[in-house]
Amino acid sequence: MKSPSWALRQSLGRQVELALQQRYHSSATSRPSPASRTSNGSSLFTRTTQCRSTTSPSAAIRAVTRSKNAQQQETRRLFSRTSRTSQQQPAEDPNFTSILDNPPQLVRTGRRHNMWGLAFLAIIPVTAFVLGTWQVQRLGWKTELIARFEDRLVRDPLPLPGRVDPDAIHDFDFRRVVAKGHLRHDQEMLIGPRMRDGEDGYMVVTPLEREGDGTTVLVNRGWISKKMRRQADRGPGSLPRGEVVVEGLLREPWKKNMFTPDNRPDKGEFYFPDVRQMAELTGSQAVWIESTMEPDWSESLEMHSRGIPIGRAAEVNLRNNHAQYIFTWYGLAIATSIMFYMVVKKPPTDVSRRVRLNKNW
Q1: Per-residue pLDDT at 361
Q2: What CA–CA distances, in Å, run from 83 to 28, 79, 80, 192, 238?
Q3: Which of 248, 302, 312, 342 is most buried, judged by most C-beta within 10 A?
């Protein structure tokens, strides 16, 4: 069995032999003749054999290291000569543009905006501005309407004619009128439910039959509590007999909204005052009068306890909230415009400022 030192010497010898051969071939400038190649090969193998027998391991390692360094230097010189001759430096190109001559362009990072989303966001402030302008017009119209109605309220009551054209009531809306006659309690109708001061109840509608011409009109006498729905449960004075004088406001027929159910006259259930329908049921004219009164607090309690209908005050109760709508719509238009500007023209953040785009260098 051969010793490890012998195997190490053999390995180092082979490495030295390979290094010397590579160095010999790389440093040769001209091809030698066959004779000289034979003699050199013989001498090389002779020196190799001698190195195997006489060279120590440390000397062999140094020789291998020197041969590798020489080979690396020769390879660098070879590649440097090749790159210099085959490639052209960028600065030698007359069309070359330096990064200093081509300044970078600032770009934004992240996702690009969706065009549909931007279009929808742009429509919101425009729509809000249009609605705000429309509310300005509505405010002027409602203010003028209330002023016209209040002017009619301050006038003296007008005696109600015998025959009233339903189409002409629009020009006399909120006009104070006076009518005399007998109340037909047997044709009484309750409209409800209606709330008053947090209590559920009904509006009492009773036909007023006038003497002389024999015409009948519908009178909204006022509000009663739900527990006074039956006439038998009401106290004295709730069902006046004989001739009475009714002073109230001549009003246009109400309009039913989409959330109110239809009346059911066959069951005596009325959810809104359909004046024409009620007039057909009672054989009266399609004329609606709202009884007015101004009782104090004690009188209201007495009327409430006895089931006497409490009439409305002689005032214009039309809502006029258009000023609030104007501020709402215009405020929404301003807010959404600022949001749209911030989305489209928002300045880049500190991280985004460092991002550059340069395609021509």
Answers
A1: 45
A2: 22, 6, 5, 101, 118
A3: 248
Domain boundaries, the chain: 114-157+318-346, 175-306
> How far, in Å, CA of 92 to CA of 83, rounded?
14
Q: What share of the chain is helix, strand, coil (3-state, %, to 5)?
A: 50, 15, 30
Tokens 């290094």 locate to 19
Q: In this structure, are residues 278 and 218 in contact, taking their beta carbons and an 8 Å threshold?
A: yes
Alpha helical stretches, state H, the chain: 4-27, 34-54, 57-86, 115-153, 275-282, 297-306, 322-345, 350-353
- Residue of 196, 200, 199, 219 lying closest to 208 (CA atoms): 219
> Would you state the pLDDT for residue 247?
93
Cβ count within 10 A of residue 222? 22
Residue 198 is encoded by which pair of tokens?
Answer: 């947090």
Task: Note the pLDDT of residue 130.
Answer: 95
Q: What is the pTM of this model?
A: 0.60
